[in-house]
Amino acid sequence: MTLTSFPNGVSSFGIPIMGGGVPTTTGRYYFVDSTTGSNGNSGLDSLNALASIDAAINKCTANKGDVVICMSNHAETGTTAALFNADVAGISIIGLGNGDNRPTITLGTSTGCDVDLAADNVLIRNLKFDMTAVDSIAAGIDVDGAYITIEDCEILMGDSDGQAVIAIGGSYGTLSEIAYALLNGVPVVGLNTWAFSRNGQEDNSIDLAQNPVEAVEKAFALAEKGETP
Prior knowledge:
- By secondary structure, the chain is an alpha/beta fold.
- It has 3 helices and 18 strands.
- The chain is globular, with a radius of gyration of 18 Å.
C-alpha cells in the first residue's frame, strides 16, 4: 500500500478522509497541476503531479475506483477533439478550489473541440468548462458512456450574440454562480440543481433540463437568442 501526499502537508496510507467533495476510495489518487506538473511524473502525490487530465486517466485502472484530482487553478485548453477522454470505467475526475480557482477546461479555436466521456460510471465534479471562445461548438462534452455523472460544474457557452451557463448539482458554490449569471443577464440552464420561489410563487429564472443532452441544447438556444428564460 502506497503513501499518498495531499496538499498542506497531509499524507495517508490506505483510505484517507477528505473533504471538499473528493471521494474516498480503495483505488489510487492521481494529481494533476498545469502549473507545477509534468506528464513524466508519477502523479501519485501533489508534489509529483501530472500536467494533464488525460495523462492521469491513462494511469487509471478500470473499475478500481481511481480518482483524478485536479489542483486549484489547473487549466487546459483544447484545440482539437478529445482534449481528454475518460475512457476508463469507474473513475472520478474531481476539481479542487472554489469560484474562479476551480480547474478550468477551455475549448477553443475549432467547432470540433470537445472532451469525451467514453467509459461507463464516470464522475465529473467541480470543474469549469469554458466554451465561449468559438461560435457553435458541435458537442463540447461528448457523452458516450452509461451512468455518467456531472455535478457541481460550471459550463459557459456562447456565440457572437450571447452566452449561457449550465448549472449542475446543488452545492452553495453552484448557487452563487447562478446568482452571478442571472444578475449579469446570462441565461441559466439547470440540471439537477436549485429551484426557486419568490413570494410564494415559482420563479422560472432557471430553465430546467432533464438530462445532459437537453441541457446543452437549451443552453445553445438561449445563447443564440441572447436572453434569459
